[in-house]
Amino acid sequence: MQPINLTSALAAGKDLVAKVQTASGVDVKACYQCGKCSAGCPVAFAMDYTPRQVMRMLQLGLAEETIKSRAIWLCAQCETCSARCPRSLEPAKVMEALRIEAKRAGFEADDEIATFNEKFLRSVASNGRVFEAGLIVGYNMATVQPLKDAGVAPSMLAKGKLKLFPSKIRGRDVINRMFTKAEKMEADNK
Amino acid sequence: MKYAYYPGCSLHSTGIEYNMSTLAVAKKLNVELEEIPDWNCCGASAGHTTNHLLGLALPARNLAIAEKQGLDVMAPCASCYNRMKTAEVAVKSSPEIRAKVAEITEMDYAGNSGVKSALEVFLKEVGLEKIKASLVRNLGGMKVAAYYGCLLVRPNGIGMDDPEDPMTMDDMITALGGEAVQWPFKTECCGASLPTARSKVGLKMVNDILQMADISGVDAIVTACPLCFVNLDMRQNDLNKKAGGNFNIPIFYFTELLAIALGEKPGKVGVKKHFVSTAQVLDKYNLK
Amino acid sequence: MRKVGVFVCHCGSNIAGTVDVEKVAQEAAKFPNVVFATDYKYMCSEPGQQVIKDAIKEHNLDRVVVASCSPRMHEPTFRRCIQTGGLNPYLLEMANIREHCSWVHPDKAKGTVKAIDLVRKAAAKVVKNEPLQKSSINITKRALVIGGGIAGIQVALDIADAGFPVTIVEKEPTIGGRMAQIDKTFPTLDCSACILTPKMVDAAQHPNIEIISYAEVDKVEGYVGNFDITIRKKARSVDMNKCTGCGTCWEKCPTKVDSEFDMQLGKRKAIYTPFPQAVPNKPVIDREHCLKFKTGKCGICEKVCPTGAVDFTMEDELITQQYGAIVVATGFDQFDHSVYGEYGYGKYPDVITGLHFERLVNASGPTMGKIKRPSDHKVPETVVFIKCVGSRDEAKGKTYCSRTCCMYTAKHATLMAEKVKGSKSYIFYMDVRTPGKGYEEFYKRTQGEYGAQYIRGRVSKVYPKGDKLVVRGEDSLLGRPVEIEADMVVLASAMVARSDAGDLARTLGISYDKDNFFTEAHPKLRPVETHTAGVFLAGACQGPKDIPDSVAQAGAAAAKAIGLLAKSQMETEATVSQVDESRCSGCLLCKSICPYKAIDVKIIAERVGGKTVERQVASVNKSLCQGCGACTVACRAGSLNLLGFTNEQILAEVEAVCL
Questions:
Q1: Which residue in chain C has the smallest CA separation from A35?
Q2: Rounded to whole angstroms, how far apart are CA atoms C37 and C119?
Q3: What is the per-residue pLDDT for B138?
Q4: Which CATH code of 3.20.20.80, 3.40.1010.10, 3.50.50.60, 3.40.50.300 fits the domain covering C335-496?
Q5: I need a surface site. Which of A98, A161, C209, C365 has the fewest CB within 10 A?
Q6: Which residue is closest to C462 within chain B, CA to CA?
Q7: Is B265 left (phi over 0), alpha (psi -120 to 50) or beta?
Q8: With contact defined as beta carbons under 8 Å apart, do A112 and B202 qualify?
């Protein structure tokens, strides 16, 4: 294992850590590494770094490694960590901020989740609402697993739980503009 | 009592039973619901983890419309409730955010109209006393585990009940004559979109919850979240087939049981649309 | 014309770093009445003081201003200095240009302007200073100790051994406190009762010690040297003079109540002593649960008592006594972990606290010393200890470290290994803090010899699964979530201030911190004194502490109290209130608001229109007056003045700065 040069790591990660702190409202220095977040995290078992380790990496300036991690994509935003943190920090907000930064930097370590989110939002942007059938088909095609969940589709249709056509709202042009404006405003802010 | 109704995307598709039963309960309890005209998706988790402002603006647009209606919003879906509550709190606490959100949505939302979950409206505002007085039949001791998931109870300041041991639905089960089974996984996460997006990870999470309910000896699980519902109901089949599970636990929306106890016919509130059959348990407790 | 000398201190770079001290001295030389001004590196040093003394002689100074630090630091120094220089010590004024100026203002130019103003103010005031004399009062040579735990007992024994009478007031029916509940003591593992009970007996038999148990301090009046204390002896329902402590009453009593002493794990009777070695070994009746008091029926204890000591009609008794010194040793409570939903909100019977564990392992405890878990009395084989429960948790508990938990948890794991062969203890910790003699070595033995498994991480959730408790944590050194199926979970709950600490602090007029621990006068240099003269602190009421530290602090508090009581008389402040009788209208508003009862009525005779007329005026007892100044503010006629801070002096300061 290569030693980490902390002097250069801290300097290199400074800007990104500052961005994450501002966006999340969490002072990562305040974390005392107790691990209660990771102990209660329902997805920690599948993560490459536990939420505590993500906080630690930010403390040491290893910000780029965090935005390349799978952990930030696996986070289910269940907020268990935030609810139990003895320092009232909110690791879930840090995960959220890291994910946004990762997307901005073009790192999407977990293609499946990133793709799912993207398809979800694309559906909202074009219809104003989520078109679940379209979402599932689009997602499964994009992740090259066309038959996944295919078994349930017919019975969903039969139960009236999936619609063949999207429900479109009248104000979808507004929604579309909202996406553009929000993207621009966040980009301008950084 | 009147609320602006925000069904959200799920209640029009995968969570159609939740919509049917919510409307049925509202009718029985004289809660007038006026759907928010031309409402849009709240963005769910994908929204705020992709763009923070978008995550506030999408729900804020719906709240702004409700504000024009002069009504508070009732949002049955846990995720929609959480996103709208987050937007409400954010706009109320910061004029700067209010201005930004107004610029994005092209509508000003002042924070005068707030959001309540269906649990709050039916079980707190209308109240269990009134519900008890209106019961047509009771659950006959059905052993029910209340499952709240994450977004109704977390984070602090947004959640509508205790994050570790919420009791709102438990109290309802008791009031309806069921046995509210006390179990430790009331607020464990079901994985949200992970069972779809990363099924291996997500299914383990669903499996843990179902297993705990199973060893707690429940007849059924009751929930107030369409995503939790889908994960717990539809994924049992996956788990049984792919992971050697042997689950057969009916899942209900709290509004389904409530509507049935208030005298609605089970078929009318969508219990036949579930993946795990509810027939046996309803039969066992004379609720057909 | 007065001759004032001004002496400006650099305090090394403390003042000179952000204030141009030479300029301050130059400007001061121009103030009215100032005939000499200079600056010096350390005014408080021997040569610095010599500068002042020399200048007094050379320039014939009759008033002195020292511009340096807070008068809280060096006023006594400079008063002594000008006294040896031949002036009355009250002809000194200090301008605080350090705490009030150089330490808080980084801008040197602005700081210098402010420092000049502060000196101008002091120079204007000192011109109006008059020589003052101290007076003295007698001291009541008796000490009150509030709380009869190990700290209170030690204080009482030390003061009593020095020859002064001591009263211990204890809230519970017996002295002994928390230490009596504890089984073994770290790091030696000697039995707690074996070393505590001899001290309890010593206290009971000491000719200079009076123990008033089942009693509380109701009211405190007076001041250092002469406190008037009202003690409420709660109705014991048992005549202490008649009772022999034979125990027949509690043997026959039909009512069983959860024992507070056994942390609700065992039972006691409605008439009871908390534990067999209680001192005094005489019972009380718990009226809340006693059938006689609840229903009027029963009264068995009265019938079986061979000496007729049971008295259902007994009432609370108030006794008033004068004391020269008070030592507060009221100890601590254990943090209530029912705020932790993730640990079951206090609802899981087998999730217990450290004090519960002490009772479970103690030979006179509810399980006779055999460790059995509360739910089903099974002997636990896998035990998880969770440290920092309520400590170092600003979200749900306290910010501070409770200091004792690392050691007592190591002790518990050791006792588990000794008492339950083949058992396994897991200890979740964030840091292991063992700064004490023999402590680190003890911790090492717990890990090595006794095989306790330490895991670095805070536990996130404990939940029941079958008859086990699942404990979820992260091994943060490994970076992986871990799970343990335990038979019992022991929480190292924080030490917190007594729930009624705030009330007692207000009764005593002492201060307390954000966590309700009583505040010492100085965290380093006056650790056992309070800001209220004559009131001292010992033990965990001042902050979390283990037994060795409590006993050490008790000795220190006793020494301070003895130092006070050993004096025949005590000097009082010279800065006391003075009445201008010619202007006093005799309304006596001052008398009613004086917190020290220092103002009384006096009849004076006056010649009015050729006739002698008698009228009442206020009169200040100089020995009692503490110089708080409340009366001077209340006086409508402006006839009261506080010497050293007269209205004229204060107005002179205001004018110097504002005009």
A1: C457
A2: 11
A3: 95
A4: 3.50.50.60
A5: C209
A6: B184
A7: beta
A8: no
Within 13 Å and on the Cβ side, how many CA atoms surround B9? Answer: 28
Contact between B14 and A170 using a beta-carbon 8 Å cutoff: no
Long-range contacts of B174-178 (CB under 8 A, 24+ apart): B175/B128, B175/B131, B175/B132, B176/B131, B176/B135, B176/B138, B176/B139, B176/B257, B176/B258, B176/B261, B177/B135, B177/B138, B177/B139, B177/B140, B177/B141, B177/B261, B178/B138, B178/B139, B178/B140, B178/B141, B178/B142, B178/B143, B178/B144, B178/B257
Sign of CA dihedral C649, C655, C657, C658: positive
Query: First CA to last CA across chain B, in angstroms?
Result: 30
Domain span at B13: 2-117
Residue with tokens 């630690």: A56
Cα(C520)–Cα(C532) distance, rounded to whole angstroms? Answer: 10
Provide, as residue numbers in chain C, all residues whose Cβ is less than 8 Å from the Cβ of A32: 392, 430
State how beta strands C317-323 and C226-233 pair: antiparallel
User: Residue C240 and residue C287: Cα distance in Å, rounded?
Assistant: 17
CB C353 within 8 A of CB C171: no
**C521 Rama class: left (phi>0) / alpha (psi -120 to 50) / beta:** alpha
Tokens matching residue C215: 């009693």
- For residues C428 and C475, give the distance between their C-alpha atoms in angstroms, rounded to a whole number: 9
Judged by a CB distance cut-off of 8 A, whether residue A41 touches chain C is yes
Provide the CATH topology of domain C235-315: Alpha-Beta Plaits (3.30.70)
CB contact (8 A) between residue A36 and residue C459: yes
Chain C residues with CB-CB distance to B212 below 8 A: 465
Model ipTM?
0.92
Domain boundaries, chain C: 4-126, 135-233+316-331+502-569, 235-315, 335-496, 577-642
Question: C residues 331-350 near B, CB within 8 Å?
Answer: 341-342, 345
Does residue A31 sit in the same domain as residue A97? Answer: yes
Contact C647, C583 (CB under 8 A): no
Question: In which residue are the tokens 């269990």 written?
Answer: B128
| Domain C4-126: CATH architecture, name and number where available | 3-Layer(aba) Sandwich (3.40)
pLDDT digits (tens, 9 = 90+) for C436-486: 999 999 999 999 999 999 999 999 999 999 999 999 999 999 999 999 999
CA nearest neighbour of C154 among C164, C168, C142: C168
CATH number of the domain residue B152 falls in: 3.40.50.11810
Q: List alpha helices for A34-70, DSSP H.
A: 36-40, 51-59, 63-67
Q: What are the tokens at B269?
A: 């509130």
Chain A environment of C475 (Cβ under 8 Å):
35
Average pLDDT over residues B203-219: 96
User: Is residue A190's pLDDT more than 70?
Assistant: no
Looking at A54, A89, A105, the residue that finishes a domain is: A105
A161–B14 C-beta distance less than 8 A: yes
Residue C432 exposure: Cα atoms within 13 Å on the Cβ side: 18
- Same domain? A94 vs A139: no
> Within a domain: residue A3?
no
Q: What is the pLDDT at residue A147?
A: 59
CB contact under 8 A, A170 and B189: no
CB contact under 8 A, B150 and A183: no
Across the interface, of A53, A80, A85, the residue whose CB is closest to C395 is A85
pLDDT of residue C137: 86
Beta bridge partners of C461: C472
Q: Closest to B46 (Cβ–Cβ): which among A120, A136, A155? A: A120
Dist CA C67 CA C69 (whole Å): 7
pTM of the model: 0.89
The answer to whether C460 faces chain A, any CB pair under 8 Å, is yes
Q: Which CATH class is domain C577-642?
A: alpha beta
Whether the CB-CB separation of C334 and C545 falls below 8 Å is answered with no
